[in-house]
Amino acid sequence: MTDAPTHAADIDADTDADGVDETADRKVVEEEQAQIRDFVKGLSADDIKSGNWFTKLAAHAMNAYTQKVDWQYFQDRYAGVPADVIVDQRIKMAARYAALEGGLSAGAYTATVAATIGSLGGASPATVPAAVATMMVDVAFISQLQLRLPTTSPSSTGCRSTCTTPRTCGS
């Protein structure tokens, strides 16, 4: 997860008048989804049933993110931009990413259902595991966005976030 861009601005691309490049955003979301898909594949049924998947996701997401995203990252990325504007931009970015991910997940759900319909029900045994995997990727992606967003405010103002493990996020 450490190699993934943390923002579409990390990818060289053209932007529109609002500074938003949906192609670059989509690329970041697809890369994050692929990494989350790999993470979900590594989970056991017991992890999912017990809720341990969330603790593992929190550790996985925050460890990599807080190592890369710190005060210097924001100084380099948003030179001269006030901290409140940085936080606002990061919130808008998270909303865009969530919307893009939702669209991609909807496409995956549709493909799963279409496979079942196209095979006259023959693909039904494969539909449930595929739907569960897609749902877990969807939930994990949104959870990761929500876990990372609070580190934006302290990091953009020069404070170091202590939220690097599930235990330190609560203190």
Word description of this protein:
- By secondary structure, this protein is mostly helical.
- The protein contains eight helices and no strands.
Provide the fold topology.
Blueprint: H1 22-41, H2 45-50, H3 52-68, H4 71-77, H5 83-118, H6 124-148, H7 152-156, H8 166-169
Helix pairs in contact: 1-5, 1-6, 3-6, 5-6
Q: How would you sum up the major sheet?
A: none
Q: Based on DSSP secondary structure assignment, what is the total number of beta strands?
A: 0
Rounded to the nearest angstrom, the distance between the terminal CA atoms is 25 Å
Percentage of residues in strands: under 5%
List low-confidence stretches.
Answer: 11-17
Keywords:
8 helices, mainly alpha, flat, 70% helix, 171 residues
In brief, what are we looking at here?
Helix content is 70%, strand content 0%.
